[in-house]
Design a protein that fits this description.
Bound molecules: uracil
Number of helices: 9
Structural class: alpha/beta
Helix content: 40-55%
Shape: globular
Number of strands: 6
Length: about 190
């Protein structure tokens, strides 16, 4: 399985299916435990991620790591983090619908290979693509949706929280709810984690 994920990463690293390939520095495939039961999905890489080849490593990523740490989740231990699109949209614009349609297959394969129990969408764009097209992040953040084998939740994007720090408490409540679901459905996530 890890081998398959490595092969998929290799395939993505040479992808030229959309215009973002022309301006990227690195393909930002994903990071974390390939057997994670909990997966986080952002929108697309920004400048820092493009430079370093890893999702959520800029200021928003540092906030995300602090929030994750608050519920004992760590990118190098018990979760996996990826984005909907693997290459940086220039000037941090939203990914265009055709860019998402070209790229989403990689995410779908990642999800199939990792096979998490819980998927958390970071921000409106990921939640609208993956949970429901009319997802309203201000109203529906923190709600859990059953989708086949998966439980899905959308929460505020950490970059939105940086712009509006008043929302941090709301997002943290979502994380506390997430911790409850993990303990209920897949407590092994916390095995051996201090
Ligand atoms: N925002 C995202 O959605 N993903 C990243 O990897 C970084 C910032």
């Amino acid at each position: 399985m890890t081998d398959n994920l490595a092969q998929l990463r290799e395939r993505a690293s040479g992808c030229t299916s959309c215009r973002l390939a022309q301006t990227r520095t690195n393909v930002v495939f994903g990071v974390g435990n390939p057997n994670a039961r909990v997966m986080f999905i952002g929108e697309g890489p920004g400048k820092n991620e493009d430079e370093q080849g890893e999702p959520f490593v800029g200021r928003a990523g540092q906030l995300l790591d602090r929030m994750l740490g608050g519920i004992n989740l760590f990118r190098d231990k018990n979760i996996y983090i990826a984005n909907m699109v693997k290459c940086r949209p220039p000037e941090n614009r939203d990914p265009a619908p055709d860019e998402v349609s070209e790229c989403i297959g990689y995410l779908r394969e990642q999800i199939k290979l990792i096979h998490p129990k819980i998927l958390v969408c970071l921000g409106r764009i990921a939640a609208q693509y993956l949970i429901t097209p009319d997802f309203k992040v201000t109203k529906q953040h923190g709600e859990f949706f059953e989708r086949g084998d998966f439980l899905m939740m959308g929460t505020l994007h950490p970059a939105a929280i940086l712009r509006n720090p008043g929302q941090k408490a709301l997002a943290f409540e979502d994380f506390v709810g997430l911790r409850h679901r993990i303990l209920e459905l897949c407590p092994e996530v916390y095995e051996g984690i201090e």
